[in-house]
Amino acid sequence: MTRIYFRKSLAERFWSNVVKRGDDECWAYRPNTKGYGRYANFSIEKGKNVLSHRFAYLLAYGVDPGAKQVCHTCDNPRCCNPRHLFLGTTQENTADRDAKGRMARGSRQANAKLTEEDVVRIRELRSQGVSHGRIAKMFHVSVGTIKDIDHRRTWHHL
Ligand SMILES: [Zn+2]
């Protein structure tokens, strides 16, 4: 009898280093490793190590982030939960900040809990297939608020 050994795929090796928890919780990459836990131990391009959350994004969505930044809704750099990751560019981030600084039209409306930056993020998350309910939890607003934004019943100037 011949035994055939298959090498574990890159994806399997990667996810075996991630502590997967609930959908809304953060999934840390090699949580017990100090310092270099953020880098996946392999590269897509030769000689270039890739950040673990970028690799997670690539595996989960099948999209190479390329020049774009993979951002965290949870601000946890080690987190590899695809639901906490979204694409952004440095340019977009700067534009958001500028817009806020000049005059945030929507943000100044009475009762506005969200900023224009939040709304942009929310629409990005929706385009990546994140549910209304999950986004509502992330931003501590109602599901209706998220739906209104998604269907452009509110914030249509953005
Ligand atoms: Zn997270």
Describe the structure.
- By secondary structure, this protein is mainly α.
- Helices cover 36% and strands 5% of the residues.
- The chain is built from six helices and two strands.
- It has a two-stranded antiparallel ribbon with strand order 1-2.
- It is elongated.
- Mean pLDDT is 78; it is low at 102-111.
- It binds zinc ion.
- Residues 26, 72, 74, 76, 79, 81, 84 line the site of zinc ion.
Provide a compact summary of the structure.
By secondary structure, the chain is mostly helical.
Topology readout:
Layout: H1 10-15, H2 52-61, E1 69-72, E2 85-88, H3 90-102, H4 116-127, H5 132-139, H6 143-150
Antiparallel strand pairs: 1-2
The protein binds zinc ion.
The site of zinc ion (ZN) has 7 residues, from loops.
Radius of gyration: 19 Å
The biggest beta sheet is recorded as: 2 strands, antiparallel
Class by SSE composition? mainly alpha
DSSP strand count? 2
What string gives the helices and strands in order?
HHEEHHHH
Strand order of the largest sheet: 1-2
- What is the residue-mean pLDDT, rounded to a whole number? 78
Strand proportion, as a percent range, falls in 5-15%
Each distinct ligand: zinc ion
Number of helices: 6
Low-confidence stretches: 102-111
The N- and C-terminal alpha carbons lie at a distance of 65 Å
Integer tally of domains: 2
Approximate shape: elongated
Estimated helix fraction: 25-40%
Give a quick set of tags describing it.
single chain; 158 residues; mainly alpha; two-stranded antiparallel ribbon; 6 helices; binds zinc ion
